[in-house]
Amino acid sequence: MHLLIPAAGSGKRMGGDRNKLLLSLREKPLLAWTLLAANAAQSIQWVGVIAQPDEWEELKAIVSDLGLNRAVHFIPGGKTRQESVHNGLNGLPDTAEQVLIHDGARCLVSPALIDRCASAVHQYPGLIAAIPVKDTIKQVLPNTRQIQHTPDRQFLWAAQTPQGFDVTTLRKCHEEARRQRWAVTDDAALFEKCGLPVQIVEGEETNLKVTTPVDLAIADFILQQRHA
Ligand code: CTP
Ligand code: MG
Taking every pair of C-alpha atoms in the chain, what is the biggest distance, in angstroms? Predict the structure, then answer.
């Protein structure tokens, strides 16, 4: 299975002055934990990191320090995650029939979840890891924040990555998105907008996306428990 890791963001919500994936988490850069999980997933034969070229040198040094048993390929990032994944799809080898996409920022993913998604994508050409939401979610009016609607929580799942797709179909969805100027925050949304089914695979509560400083503290705690 081919795995693309979007890692070309800037980490604005983390509030630092650099890509959050380069921040240190238990004595390793955050992205190193994601790469170690990918390396330990038996289903993954090919890894592509999508990153801004001015960070390649630093990232290549991180990769070589880890002594991974698989080569890691580098693909230039775009201005948005969507553009980064689009570049990633163009950087896949011709032999790639299915692809998993996993955010570099979800550094606590287990190798087992990656393997489960890799095996399920043969059955479902569009799938995502997700977990049931714990909060009651409100849909609001954008300006006033007055509540419009409370969707029934039993039907709400929080999207995670890995997300797995048939490569040809996902490429077509990305091209359609460019034509229609759709802007989305995950690839499943492009499948949905094209009218294609996307299946949920049970994700993991600990597979959080490190987004704010609180997430970094929680990730630190979880890694400490795991490696105690
Ligand atoms: N990402 C990317 N290319 C972009 C933007 C984001 O590859 N132009 C990646 C990030 O590196 C991250 C994943 O997409 O691994 C999920 O994005 P997010 O958590 O939003 O990270 P950032 O965009 O870096 O953070 P922020 O939105 O707070 O700036
Ligand atoms: Mg972002």
Answer: 53
Q: Is 120 exposed, middle or buried (0-12, 13-18, 19+ CB in 10 A)?
A: middle
What atom of ligand 1 comes closest to residue 210's alpha carbon? 19
Considering every ligand atom shown, identify the ligand nearest to the alpha carbon of residue 107 and give its number: 1
Per-domain residue ranges for the chain? 2-226
Token representation of residue 184: 């989305």
CA of 11 to the centre of ligand 2 (A): 7
Contact assessment for residue 128 and residue 170, using Cβ atoms and an 8 Å cutoff = no
Distance (Å) of CA 101 to CA 29, 85, 144, 165, 188: 20, 8, 36, 8, 10
The residue whose CB lies within 8 Å of the most ligand 1 atoms, and thus the one to mutate among 10, 74, 185, 212, is 10
Does the structure show a pLDDT above 90 at 69?
Answer: no
CA 68 / ligand 2 centre spacing (Å): 27
Q: 145 by DSSP, 3-state: which? A: coil
Q: Does domain 2-226 have CATH number 2.170.150.20?
A: no
- Tell me if the pTM is above 0.90: yes
Report pLDDT for 152: 98
Question: Best substitution site from 4, 81, 215 to test ligand 1's pocket, by max atoms within 8 Å of Cβ?
Answer: 81
Mean pLDDT of 39-50: 97
Closest listed ligand to the CA of 11: 1
Q: How many C-beta neighbours within 10 Å does residue 24 have?
A: 11
